TrEMBL record:
It is a peripheral membrane protein. Keywords: Hydrogen ion transport, Ion transport, Membrane, Transport, Vacuole. It comes from Eremomyces bilateralis CBS 781.70. GO terms for molecular function: proton-transporting ATPase activity, rotational mechanism. One of its GO terms (cellular component) is fungal-type vacuole membrane. Pfam families: ATP-synt_F. Its main location: membrane. The keyword Membrane applies. It comes from the Eukaryota. This is V-type proton ATPase subunit F. Belongs to the V-ATPase F subunit family.
Length: 123
């Protein structure tokens, strides 16, 4: 069992989303940039031109490399672009939450967390 020491530094949210979602969350105070020469943002704005490889790289950075991220929020329609990565992600921290976007409503049938919960309850 993991100790609390492993998770005590996880104090930030990260966001992978469309411009409206990221802007709203940044206005709410979620934004953070790390110190140092290799300063990293805790968000990625995805548009129609953003390649899946860029989204996957941000997903990996937020879930594997950054040890200060507690929760990763990702728009569900963007998670669909890297669904194979999202569905295989099982770590407790950072927690992964799929959120709706202004133009893309939330579909519970696609949510990887809800799928796992349903399997636990035998549905």
């Amino acid at each position: 069992m993991a100790s609390n020491a492993e998770y005590k530094d996880r104090q930030f949210l990260a966001v992978i989303g469309d411009e409206d979602s990221v802007t709203g969350l940044l206005l709410a105070g979620v934004g953070h940039v790390t110190q140092g020469a290799d300063a990293q943002k805790n968000f990625l704005v995805v548009d129609a031109k953003t390649e899946s490889a860029v989204i996957e790289a941000a997903f990996d950075r937020f879930t594997q490399e950054r040890k200060d991220i507690a929760i990763l929020l990702i728009n569900q329609h963007i998670a669909d672009k890297i669904r194979h990565r999202v569905d295989t992600y099982t770590a407790a921290f950072p927690s992964l939450l799929e959120i709706p976007a202004k133009d893309h409503p939330y579909d519970p049938e696609k949510d990887s967390v809800l799928k796992r919960v349903r399997r636990l309850f035998g549905e």
